[in-house]
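Data deposition worksheet. Section B asks for the primary sequence of the deposited chain exactly as it was used as input, without tags or linkers unless they were present during the calculation. Section C holds the resulting structure in token form. Section D is free text for depositor observations; keep each observation to a single sentence. Incomplete worksheets are returned to the depositor.
Section A, Depositor: J.P.
Section B:
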Amino acid sequence: MSTTLTIAEGFAEPLRAAGFDTFGKIMALPAPRGDVTRAVPGRFTTRVEAAGRVLYLKRHHGLMTARQARNEWQRLHELRDVGIACPTPVAFGEQRGLFGAGASFVITEEIPNATQADWWLRDRPARRRELLAPIADIARRFHERGYCHKDFYLCHFFVRETAGGTGALKIFLLDLQRCTRPCCGAWRWIVKDLAQLHYSMTAQADFTADDWREFTRLYGASEAPLWRTVEAKSARIARHVPKHG
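Section C:
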């Protein structure tokens, strides 16, 4: 059994002071119910504080999900290096056995004054078109560099306003644990990404057909077959979403 622990420059002392300085301590941290921000099979995310800095700790258990922490750690660095805004990577840890990683974590720093895009829109529905250009820009540059997110829903974009809430918007891309750079078949995954975005914008956040046409113009791909395929895939996503009530 081998263990890896990597801490980004500037974070070693805050983590040490908070007692988060070994793989075992980090994986054993208690998770108060109110601080668990997301929990799915094999993975849960906890909000923690270290020396006054707010961090998000994403822990993975099991062979099927443990490799995702390493993947997210690598993608965070790669995307930030090419100018795509993402959370600041703080630390990564992994425990590997004979058959690969069985437990892992990745820690990122909270994005100050940023809000999940769909939540931001709840209070500002009239400003939805302000999101089109920055999200289309991220999506285009992300796909041009060969990346596919696989969970490219509006909720995985965060919005930060400048100038006291009246200025330009900065958009961040989150949740990169499944992000890949496929060597073949990338078109299929790009379609899936765009379909997930189309579904979450038009079915869940009240973007109109005209808004979506403007998004496609800003994204920069004019091929009608691409967008027909994207919208057909979006319709299939909608059919498979559980209905309640």
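Section D:
The chain has two domains: 2-109, 114-240.
The two ends are 48 Å apart (CA to CA).
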